[in-house]
Amino acid sequence: MASAAPAAIKLQLDANLLEVTWQDGHVSRYAGSYLRKICPCAACVGHAPGEREPPSWKQVEGVRVTHVAAVGSYALKLTLSDAHASGIYSYDFLRRSCPSERPDVDDTGLPTLEL
Ligand SMILES: [Zn+2]
After folding, report:
1. Domains along the chain?
2. How far does residue 92's CA lie from ligand 1's centre (Å)?
3. What is the pLDDT of residues 80-94, one digit of tens each?
4. Spatial contact of 111 and 54, defined as CB atoms under 8 Å apart
5. How far away, in angstroms, is 4 Cα from ligand 1 center?
6. What's the predicted TM-score (pTM) here?
7. H-type helices in 2-78, by residue range?
């Protein structure tokens, strides 16, 4: 089932966090570097699962979200500080990628292990 458009989307430039409040009240926070790491565009992940490795944490360290734009009612297009702007992050994908669902990152998507 497609995730409904979020109730609220807030880009916190100072904290470098994209905060998404979902219709069910769940709040997801995504650090810029995390969003860069999970970028779903073809250049990052290829056209088939497993075709390309995602960038390493070192490669995405310090990346910031500089601009957010809605794509229709189903996705966000993010502009990132490393000039990467081809990622279309569907709400389904973002909800699935909520850092709180992942064991390897903290609640904003920063790695919990040493780089
Ligand atoms: Zn990408």
Report:
1. 8-101 (3.30.2020.30)
2. 17
3. 999 898 889 999 999
4. no
5. 23
6. 0.90
7. 32-37, 42-45, 57-60
